[in-house]
Amino acid sequence: MITTKQRASLRGMANDLQALYQLGKNGMTDEFLAQIDEALSVKELIKITVLKNAFYETKEVMQMLCDSLNCEAVSAIGSKVVVYRQAKDEKNRKIKL
Q1: pTM (2 decimals)?
Q2: How far apart are CA 95 and CA 73, in angstroms?
Q3: Can you give the residue range of the structural domain that contains 35?
Q4: CA distance 76 to 34
Q5: What CA–CA distance (Å, rounded) separates 82 from 45?
Q6: Domain count of the chain?
Q7: Buried (b) or exposed (e) across 33-68, using 16+ Cβ within 10 A?
Q8: Is 63 domain-assigned?
Q9: CB-based contact 70:36 (threshold 8 Å)
Q10: What is the pLDDT along the chain (97 residues), one digit of tens a residue?
């Protein structure tokens, strides 16, 4: 569980990030979750765009990702979702909280 100050810091870091993935009409497939899981293992902080033709709202997507992948919700604003998970491997840890 991250604190409010840590979440604010992560939100600041996420401002400059480009969205790596888009969630569209195919929804939350196992392949999509596997890609997000791998990206979190390497990058720790990622941004996802929820397209208008997706069957989910932005906050629903964030909650499903956090439940499925054991990551922390950073923000869900507009069509963008930002999630964080500390890398398990010490050498991949880039973010110090």
Answers
A1: 0.89
A2: 15
A3: 4-87
A4: 21
A5: 7
A6: 1
A7: eeebeebbeebbbbbbbbeeebeeebeebbebbbee
A8: yes
A9: no
A10: 889 999 999 999 999 999 989 999 988 899 999 999 999 998 999 999 999 998 889 999 999 999 999 999 999 999 999 999 988 877 778 887 7
